[in-house]
Amino acid sequence: MRYHAVVRLTIAFLAATAAYAQFPSPTLTEVTTKVSEHVFMTTGFPNVVYVVGNAATLVVDTGLGTANGALVARVAKRLSKGPKLLLTTTHYHPEHAAGVGGFPPETILIRPAVQQQELEKEGEQTMTFFKNSPQSAPSLQGLGPLRPPDITFESEAKLELGGGLTVRLMFLGAGHTASDELIFVEPDRALITGDIVQNKVVPSVASSGGSFSSWLTVLDKLVPLQPRLVIPTHSKVGDASLITSEAAFIRDMQSRAAALKRSGVSSSDAVTRLTEVFKTNYADWVANTDWPNLNSMTGFVNRLYAEIR
Ligand SMILES: [Zn+2]
After folding, report:
1. How far is ligand 1, taken at its centre, from the CA of residue 199, in Å?
2. Which residues contact 19 (CB under 8 A, 6 or more apart)?
3. pLDDT of 32-89, one tens digit each?
């Protein structure tokens, strides 16, 4: 029993390492794109979003490590119209949150209370995993403890960045992690989705508290917002159809996995079969170069399988 557990862990780790080897470089660039009237982004691992108001600028996600964080803070300063700098993070994973040390000390850091708790509980383990990746390690060298937030909120915080630019920070339930945050820029109808809605990317539950069934509930709550733009962290900007595509993909694979599990198919055979289905039915996802989608199917199917009772 114990031997099998070790083997399984090793395989999971190797699969994850293989996936990391294909991740885009964590080094961000200062090249910005204007997404909508108040929203700018830098494309990279991850995409970082800047919401610019007359009084304050809100940055969403930090980049991996202090140097990337400092670059993001520089871009924010360049874009800013007002003196205040606010920072929030879509989830606690290092490429989204571990660049906070590069921001000026007066930056106001705000995140859901549950996200801070999850960072304190699981942050170190995820950090070790990233530090073991040859690609991520250099950006994290010498990184000390991450500073705590200035403001936390339970389920929603509303910010006013000046000139009527209102932004809703929302925690709607577990998904990719136990504490994903979604950000809605109201006048632009722009929804910043973290890892919860991507553009043709196989989703992953990457925290002990994450869950696909809860993820589907979160997606259902996003539909009524009717965003004009959906801005994901690891893939291209799209419209509201990304939300329904994300939900349809999870539901499709979930029901196929449930049928296989009911008929006694092992999880490793399910991975093989559903990867074949993926290649045939989701060829445009397979071809998406934003993410190593084929590698991600193993973790995706295993997690779906584990959740089916
Ligand atoms: Zn993540």
Report:
1. 15
2. 292, 295, 296, 299
3. 999 999 999 999 999 999 999 999 999 999 999 999 999 999 999 999 999 999 999 9
Q: What whole-number distance in Å separates Cα of residue 117 and Cα of residue 97?
A: 13
Using the mean position of ligand 1's atoms as its centre, give its distance from the Cα of residue 183 in Å: 16
Number of domains in the chain: 1
Query: What's the pLDDT at 25?
Result: 87
Q: pLDDT digits over 148-187, tens only?
A: 999 999 999 999 999 999 999 999 999 999 999 999 999 9
What is the whole-number distance in angstroms between the Cα of residue 186 and the centre of ligand 1? 25
For helices 241-262 and 212-222, the axis angle rounded to 10 degrees is 150
Convert the pLDDT of each residue in 101-144 to its tens digit: 999 999 999 999 999 999 999 999 999 999 999 999 999 999 99
Q: How far is the CA of 61 from the centre of ligand 1 (A)?
A: 11
One-letter identity of residue 2: R
What is the CATH number for 266?
3.60.15.10
The tokens for 68 are 């990337």
**Parent domain of 116:** 2-307
Going from the Cα of 72 to the center of ligand 1, the distance in angstroms, rounded, reads: 18
Peptide bond into 46 cis (omega under 30): yes
Sign of the four-CA dihedral 201, 204, 210, 213: positive
Which residues on neighbouring strands pair with residue 191, listed in sequence order?
184, 230
Question: Rounded to the nearest whole angstrom, what is the distance from the C-alpha of residue 112 to the centroid of ligand 1?
Answer: 16
Q: Indicate the residue type of 28.
A: L
Q: What is the secondary structure of 197-209 as a DSSP string?
A: S-SS------STT
